[in-house]
Write a structure and sequence with these properties.
This protein is mainly alpha-helical and 417 residues long. The protein is built from 16 helices and no strands.
Length: 417
C-alpha cells in the first residue's frame, strides 16, 4: 500500500513543479515591463510590450493545441520532458535578447513549450489519481500555478530593476526540474496499458476522433467554459489593480492586492477538489462559476473599508480560479484515455484565446474610462455564461460509444473505454 501511494505521489509532485513554471510565466512579464518601458531598453515601448505579451500567449495556446495529439500517440512522459527543456532554454535566452524582435520570438517559442506542459501535467495526475479522487488531484496540482505566481511576484520585489535575473531564475528553475522528470517521472498508466494500440496511432487520429459528432455537445460546452474561465483569470490578473484604482481606492502597493487574489485561488483549489469529488465535478464547477459571478458583481459596489474589500477579493479568487481548474478536472473524466490528452490540449488552447481576449476587452474599457464598474460586469457575465454551458451538458445514460454524462462522469471517474 505504501508503494502504491509513493508511486502516485511522485508524478503529482513533479507535475506540481511543472505547473509552478506556468505560474512564473503568468506574472514575470508584468514584473519586468515597467522597468523596460521606463528605460526604453531593447527598444521597448507600449506597442512593443503589447505585441510581446500577446505573442507569448499565442505561443502558449498553440503549444496546448499541438501537444494533445502527441501525448495520445506517443505517451505523456517524453513530450512533457521536451517541452520543459524548450521553455527553460528559451527563457534563459530571453535574458540575452539584443532587441524586442528576438525577445518576442523567444517568448513565443518558450510559450509553445510551456503551453504544452499544463494539459499534459493535468492528464498525468488525473490518470495516476485513485478512483473518485481525480478532482482533488488536479486542483491540488494546480495550486502550483498560483504558488509560482506569488513566489515570482515576491522575487520581483527584491530583484527588479535587474529584469534579466528574473528570466535567468525561471530558466534555471526549469533546468533543475528537468533531470528530476527524466529520472523519476513514469509513463502514464493509462497510456502504458494501451501501448500497442497507441504505437500505431498517428497524432492526427486523436484529433479526428475528438472532433467526431458524438463529442460535439461536450466539446462546445467545455471549450466555451474554458474560454470564459481563462478570460476571467487573465483579465483579473492583468487589470484588477487598475479597476480598483478607477473605483477610487487607495490600495498602495498593487502587488499585495494581486497576492490576496492568488492566495484566495490557492485556498479555492484546495476546497474545490474535495467538494468536486464528493458532489460531482461538473455540478461544482457550474456552481463555482455562479458564485464567482456573484462576488465579481459585489466588487463593482464601492466599499468604505479596505479590509472588507480585501476579504471580497480573496473570496472572489477562491471561486474564479478553481472554477476554471474544475473544468480541466472534468475533462479528465469526460473523455476516454485515447483522446484525453487531445481533449485537455484543445480545452487549454481555446482557453488561452480567452486569456488574450480578457485583457484586451478590459484594456479597451480602461481606455474608454468606463473600466469601473463595467469591467466587473463583463467578468460577471462571462462567469454566468460558463455556468450556463456547463449546466447544459446532458446527463443521461450512456449508450455504446456515446459520451453522454453518466453519474461516474459527473464525478470525473469514467471507466476506461
Amino acid at each position: 500500500m505504501e508503494t502504491i501511494r509513493t508511486n502516485r505521489l511522485v508524478p503529482t509532485i513533479l507535475c506540481w513543479a511543472v505547473v509552478a513554471l506556468d505560474g512564473f510565466d503568468l506574472v514575470v512579464l508584468g514584473t519586468v515591463i515597467p522597468t523596460l518601458l521606463a528605460t526604453g531598453e531593447l527598444g521597448f515601448d507600449p506597442a512593443a510590450a503589447t505585441i510581446i505579451a500577446t505573442v507569448g500567449l499565442v505561443g502558449v495556446g498553440l503549444g496546448a493545441f499541438l501537444i494533445g495529439p502527441m501525448t495520445d500517440a506517443y505517451g505523456r512522459r517524453r513530450p512533457i520532458i521536451v517541452c520543459v527543456l524548450v521553455f527553460s532554454v528559451c527563457t534563459l535566452a530571453v535574458a540575452a535578447a539584443p532587441n524586442t524582435l528576438v525577445f518576442g520570438i523567444l517568448r513565443f517559442v518558450a510559450g509553445l513549450g510551456l503551453g504544452a506542459c499544463l494539459p499534459t501535467a493535468i492528464a498525468f495526475v488525473g490518470e495516476f489519481a485513485p478512483p473518485r479522487r481525480s478532482g482533488r488531484a488536479v486542483t491540488l496540482t494546480m495550486t502550483g500555478y498560483h504558488v509560482g505566481a506569488v513566489v515570482t511576484a515576491l522575487l520581483a520585489l527584491v530583484i527588479i530593476p535587474d529584469w534579466r535575473v528574473m528570466f535567468l531564475i525561471g530558466g534555471i528553475a526549469g533546468l533543475v526540474v528537468l533531470p528530476l522528470l527524466w529520472l523519476a517521472l513514469p509513463e502514464s498508466s493509462s497510456f502504458s496499458e494501451d501501448r500497442p494500440g497507441a504505437q500505431r496511432r498517428a497524432p492526427a487520429s486523436a484529433a479526428r476522433e475528438l472532433l467526431r459528432r458524438k463529442y460535439l455537445p461536450l466539446n462546445v460546452a467545455i471549450w466555451s467554459a474554458s474560454f470564459m474561465g481563462l478570460l476571467l483569470v487573465y483579465g483579473l490578473n492583468t487589470w484588477l489593480p487598475e479597476l480598483m484604482r478607477s473605483a477610487g481606492y487607495d490600495l498602495g502597493n498593487s502587488l499585495a492586492f494581486l497576492m490576496v487574489l492568488n492566495l484566495g485561488a490557492v485556498a479555492g483549489l484546495l476546497l474545490a477538489g474535495v467538494v468536486g469529488d464528493r458532489l460531482g465535478i461538473r455540478r461544482v464547477a457550474a456552481t463555482w462559476f455562479l458564485l464567482a459571478a456573484v462576488f465579481l458583481a459585489v466588487l463593482s459596489i464601492r466599499m468604505n473599508h479596505v479590509a472588507v474589500l480585501y476579504i471580497a477579493v480573496f473570496i472572489t479568487g477562491v471561486f474564479v480560479f478553481s472554477a476554471q481548474v474544475l473544468v480541466y478536472a472534468f475533462v479528465n473524466g469526460a473523455y476516454p484515455s485515447s483522446v484525453r490528452g487531445t481533449a485537455l490540449g484543445f480545452s487549454a488552447g481555446i482557453g488561452r484565446a480567452g486569456a488574450i481576449v480578457g485583457p484586451l476587452i478590459t484594456g479597451a474599457l480602461v481606455g474608454l474610462g468606463i473600466a469601473y464598474p463595467w469591467g466587473f460586469y463583463v467578468f460577471a457575465i462571462a462567469a454566468v455564461l460558463a455556468m450556463v454551458v456547463l449546466s447544459a451538458i446532458p446527463r443521461t445514460r450512456r449508450s455504446a460509444g456515446t459520451p453522454a454524462l453518466s453519474s461516474q462522469m459527473e464525478l470525473g471517474s469514467l471507466p476506461q473505454q
